[in-house]
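Section 4.2 – Deliverable D4.2 (structural model, holo form)

The reporting period included a commitment to supply a predicted holo structure for the target in complex with cytidine-5'-monophosphate. Inputs used:
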Amino acid sequence: MKLDKKIITIDGPSASGKGVLSSSLANHLNFSLLDSGLLYRAYAYCYESSLDHELALKSFESINFVNASNKYSVNHDGNEITKQLRSESMAKIASKISMMPETRKNLISIQRSFKNDNGLIADGRDMGTVVFPEAAYKIFLTADPETRAKRRFLELQKKGQEVNMRDLIKDIEARDKADTERSLSPLIPASDASIIDTSILDPDQVLSRAIELVC
Ligand code: C5P
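Output (C-alpha cells):
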C-alpha cells in the first residue's frame, strides 16, 4: 500500500488527549481536522429519534459541521446541538450505536470524504486501522483511567455540566470495554502506530512528541 504523508491518524480511548493534540497539531501543520467521534455522536442524535438507519442517514444530511480554527460546532436543521452532542449521555448512545454494522458502513465514506490535498488529522478509534490504513503517520494515545476521568470531570465542569467522579470512572471504563471488545473496528493500535502514554505529560509535551514523530 502506498503511504500517504498527508494523513496523520490519532486514535485512543476517551479523554486520552486526542482532541487537544489533534486540534493543536492541525493548527501547527495547517492541516484540516476530522473529529470522527463528533460524527458518531451526530449520527447517534439522528438515529435516536427513529431507531432506523435509513432515516438516520437522511436526517444526517441536515447536519452541518461548522469549523472555526479546527474547533467544530454542529447544527441540525439550523439548530445548534453542539452542547447536547458533547454530553456524557450522548457519548453513551454513540458508543452503543457505534457497534452496529450499519452505523459504521454509513459513516465510513463520510469520514473518508474529509481527505484532502492540504493534509488531514483524523481523530478517533479506528482511523489508523480501518478508515485511513494508508496514513503514513499513526499515533495511539493512552492514559490511565483515573487521569482520563479527572480530565473529563474538569472539562464537563468547565462547560457547566453536573458530573459525579465515581460515575464518570464507571462510564469511562464501561465505554473502554465496549470500544475495545466489539468485533467491528475495535479500539486497538494499528501495527505501525507509535504509542504515547499521556498520563504524566501536559498538552505541550504531547504535541512536541507528536511533532518529533511526524516531521
Ligand atoms: O471520541 P468520542 O468520545 O467523541 O466518541 C464517542 C463514541 O463514538 C466512542 O465511545 C466510540 O464508541 C464511538 N466512536 C467510534 N469510532 C470512532 C470514533 C468514535 O466507534 N472512530
